[in-house]
Specification:
The structure is a homodimer of 107-residue chains. Chain A contains three helices and four strands; from the N terminus they run βαββααβ. By secondary structure, chain A is of the alpha+beta class. In chain A, a hairpin with a 4-residue loop joins strand 2 and strand 3. At the A-B interface, strand 1, strand 2, strand 3 and strand 4 of A face strand 1, strand 2, strand 3 and strand 4 of B. Strand 4 of chain A pairs antiparallel with strand 4 of chain B.
Chain lengths: 107, 107
């Protein structure tokens, strides 16, 4: 399976989520997988790319059709629980950036 | 050292580079480190975040003040050599997306 997101021609939106995990698994992996699965079911979801290094620093970029799609996903009840647990348990620190993809190139 | 980029208030630009490495080191690491070092010296560079997983899939996001800054970096002679070697030797595949960061949040 390719780890690249198959996105359409721009414009579309990218949510860049960079995070540093805390020590300990604390059921993080099943949640992370579930969130990608659930995001993929949302209207306006275009794809996601995700990597975490052995030092616990990770980058996940998810792609969306519109601001509305991002906003709906942010408000999703199961996702909100994950967001709260992320703040209190899983992430030592994180940054979230919402950006508009204007141009895209591939190899 | 924090792996997070310390970016200013939006708007600014994010270059999202996702890539799949080929097999073999082929002097990739010294080049990758040199490119981050060199990028950091360019006008309009705001920071970068980078992770590669053990499967060879990686995400690097670099942040820039303007389209002009991104364009100048793209044309930099040493960077152009790295781009060419990336195409022919280091990367099996890659995607490059240029986006405008509109909003940012942190923990």
């Amino acid at each position: 399976m390719s780890l690249f997101a198959k996105t359409p021609e721009p414009p579309y939106y990218a949510v860049i989520f960079t995070s540093q995990r805390t020590e300990g698994e604390n059921s993080y992996e099943p949640m992370a997988e579930r969130m990608i699965e659930l995001a993929a079911e949302q209207p306006g979801f275009l794809g996601a790319e995700s990597v975490r290094g052995s030092d616990g620093f990770g980058i996940t970029v998810s792609y969306w059709k519109s601001h509305e799609a991002i906003s709906s996903w942010k408000q999703h009840s199961e996702h909100r629980i994950a967001q709260e647990t992320g703040k209190t348990l899983w992430y030592q620190d994180y940054q979230l950036r919402i950006s508009k993809v204007e141009r895209a190139y591939s190899k």
